[in-house]
Amino acid sequence: xxxxxxxxxxxxxxxxxxxxxxRDGQQTRGVDFTVADKAxxxxxxxxxxxxxxxxxxxxxxxxxxRFFAEPPKMENARIVAFGMTRRPGRSAENDPGLAGxxxxxxxxxxxxxxxxxxxxxxxLEIERDENVAMVRDSIxxxxxxxxxxxFDCEHFFDGFKANPDYALECAEAAYKSGAxxxxxxxxxxxxxxxxxEAIVATVAARVPGTHLGIHCHNDTGNAVANSLAAIRAGxxxxxxxxxxxxxRCGNADMMxxxxxxxxxxxxxxxxxxxxxxxxxxxxxxxxxxxxxxxxPHRAYVGAAxxxxxxxxxxxxxxxxPKTYEHVEPGIVGNQRHILVSDQAGRSNILARFAEIGxxxxxKHPKIQRLVDEVKEKExxxxxxxxxxxxxxxxxxxxxxxxxxxxxxxxxxxxDERRFNARGDLVIESEATATLTxxxxxxxxxxxxxxPVNALDTAIRKALTPKFPAIQTMxxxxxxxxxxxxxxxxxxxxxxxxxxxxxxxxxxxxxxTVGVSPNIIDASIAALSDAITWKLLRAGAAVPKxxx
Amino acid sequence: xxxxxxxxxxxxxxxxxxxxxxRDGQQTRGVDFTVADKAxxxxxxxxxxxxxxxxxxxxxxxxxxRFFAEPPKMENARIVAFGMTRRPGRSAENDPGLAGxxxxxxxxxxxxxxxxxxxxxxxLEIERDENVAMVRDSIxxxxxxxxxxxFDCEHFFDGFKANPDYALECAEAAYKSGAxxxxxxxxxxxxxxxxxEAIVATVAARVPGTHLGIHCHNDTGNAVANSLAAIRAGxxxxxxxxxxxxxRCGNADMMxxxxxxxxxxxxxxxxxxxxxxxxxxxxxxxxxxxxxxxxPHRAYVGAAxxxxxxxxxxxxxxxxPKTYEHVEPGIVGNQRHILVSDQAGRSNILARFAEIGxxxxxKHPKIQRLVDEVKEKExxxxxxxxxxxxxxxxxxxxxxxxxxxxxxxxxxxxDERRFNARGDLVIESEATATLTxxxxxxxxxxxxxxPVNALDTAIRKALTPKFPAIQTMxxxxxxxxxxxxxxxxxxxxxxxxxxxxxxxxxxxxxxTVGVSPNIIDASIAALSDAITWKLLRAGAAVPKxxx
Lengths: 547, 547
Hints:
The structure is a homodimer.
Chain A: E1 16-19, H1 35-48, E2 52-56, H2 62-69, E3 78-84, H3 96-103, E4 108-114, H4 117-124, H5 128-144, E5 148-154, H6 156-162, H7 164-176, E6 181-185, H8 193-203, E7 212-215, H9 223-232, E8 237-240, H10 254-264, H11 273-276, H12 279-289, E9 307-308, H13 311-319, E10 337-338, H14 346-356, H15 366-380, H16 388-399, E11 407-419, E12 425-437, E13 440-448, H17 451-463, E14 474-483, E15 495-503, E16 509-516, H18 519-537
Parallel strand pairs in A: 1-2, 1-8, 2-3, 3-4, 4-5, 5-6, 6-7, 7-8, 9-10
Antiparallel strand pairs in A: 11-12, 12-13, 14-15, 15-16
Helix pairs in contact in A: 1-12, 5-7, 6-7, 8-9, 13-14, 15-16, 16-18, 17-18
């Protein structure tokens, strides 16, 4: 039956990881992968140790066609082409859709078919026997042409609850036709963990657990638990996506499944301890590709997953991290963070100093002043726990002083939309800025594609001759938040908080914040901090006053 | 022992809901509730049917002190004051911290104490017997002064795994001293569902399930499943927060727990079918209070929880929603959405028209053009699935035309930071705009706290005389996204997408989008759509050309 000889002597605890970010994850609102995106993500998953990478659906859209025409070379992972079983009334040999999937130059295919009688009756409107034949024929065809064949049992758990005999008949048909994997899908996401465990255990009496896979959705908030429950019941392939990407409430989150299986449950996968440390960077990579903010609270890999805020927790964690951490963050490539906020006591601030490498006597008289200043600025709208570079400058200014590399004296920016003399519509932003550097005034003008961009360009024109280090600096993210008027206040105007993220040629990134009722002013404040931090880091010298 | 007589004849399936948004949720990065926030949230939870509302920690900060000095009146819920057991070496009668908690004018208190020997040894550095005495004395004191007393067993599951006898001794000490509830806390969040179920079943042999509570964290992605597992093992109080708010990876999400218990598991709570429909609005209310974007993928209540994107799913859902929905969205106050995106086929577009009330013949020749136009605009950076009002305008313009209420001919905005004649620092934005309304040109100037605000004000000055309907319109949210250069493109500049959300006097909100390399231009495009949509809805007439 099976084409993979390793299951002749199965390692009972070997779990195979199947990632469907590039297929099921692509269904998500706002997600569209290019071919380059898919290849890069596939390579990262291969490096991580994923066994199967579902690359997409050949024939469904041009991007997937191009991906499968020239799939990226994998070191270990097998790329999988997804699609449907043959259509009703056609033979498997003579179905163009199926042929397209089997033409893909990849070792494995995964075909989805109905296993819930309700869907066969209402959605497909065909005979139940014809549906079973579609499953049988399509899997047999895939095996004949030499693919590792898998069958996705759509809506399996709803189907099993409604008509267990029919659901099992469909699953078994795939197994008996040579499917290496029969994947039980909780397509609507409505099944609970204890139900999954019981049903999978029942199925495993007909299709061995070594051939069973599980594919869950998060509509009840249980996708991860459901996946683990299936493994406990004997299934040995688990499907999921990076960061739980997927429509509605998402697919099962691989970033939680992998460490839970490997570290907590002692299962064997192709993600060994060394590869596991890539987990956090794989998670961030996907969010960067999709240009979305990372969820800081994501289990294991979120920026805040090991972040400690309250004073009591921080003291205990510093004594022994096991007091408040369930695993050591480094095993998944993550970090411990001590957050600064207006709940910060002295221990938080001291821990933050240690993290940024500032040596300070715990009894330094200015620490309390720093705590108070953080509280006050946060009341005004600053947020330091996502602007570490601004916090560092605030702290250094107070404790040891920061060189005054430059002063932005005044600026003006004009944005205009008008028709030019030729009758063309033009939109221009032009900025002038006056800076003092080393006692000399510099007055520059620049254009840009927006007011902040124009000002940034003018400021750099003024600074780059004296500070070549900022040439390699670029703005990579820009976030605006309109804050309500000061809480418990008297209705003064809303204020704007701008956070920017900068990057330099070494790939180092740093975040700064600016707050003002005026968005341009807030942006310039954040930018000024970003430049100052870079100059500090580069060891720049304050220029001597020109004679 | 127990002070609550209803447990004499317990309803075996009655589960008590305990919300700790205002206490454990407050630990989250970026979260700071005012007293007004706390009162409003408490009232919403009371209306929803929550049994216990943990309001905070009297003595820990001024906001909590003020909250407990004058707690809001509840219709059904009991407000709970949180705090620690008495300190080592003090008596319960003579501990100022404990006294502060017991002084709070609320019916219930919840005291946290150690149950993991490791913490007693390393974090507290006291004798193990002293810790047990602290538990016993503090609970007894609370009962003596007439509070409903609860004990939070901190790190219970880690403690039970390390030293089950000691953990049980602490839990039992609380029960025997009169605690109504003994709450087992997975404080580090590292326990898996099957472990929770087994351990809670063991504890229930010593402390009856009717007195056991569960408090989980989401560090492994299993907080909801862990909570349900504890209920299956006999616990009858479950703790969580709105939207899973909490530090690190969050607390257990009440928005998933409640429907799972009530709809899926058939348990009885004080959240009946009618109150359950408030669930989605409670979730959105918290995010608004915290000024954070809602997670569209949140189970049950997320904006995308019942959103269908792919063409095949949409066809099936329209035949019968049960094909792809595990519950009917209305039961939790949510809605089905058909998303428009470049994956949209004809069926998506038609479904969207139905949703916005546009009558159209499915065979209308322009539908394909609309599908193509959406694809093209999304390639340029537009995103219609979060800008329904802009989609509606796009569709109406194509199918039936939209009146040309006004044209923005040209605009100019100047932002300046300078010192005025008195030597004060001023930051000003001044905008001029030229609009054509009913054949007449209007040229207005205005100042604002930023370029978009100034332009918006100038535009309204020009429009309000002819269109009084826009007077009640205001901008309530403004989001900027810098998009990378066109994918697979040749490196042309990044483009900016601005999404704005507007609101009018009826509380109706609508979202529009604008895309341009220039942020001001993108903002004006989004604003122009917002105004046009409002005028369309208000049934405004295009002004006749002034003679």
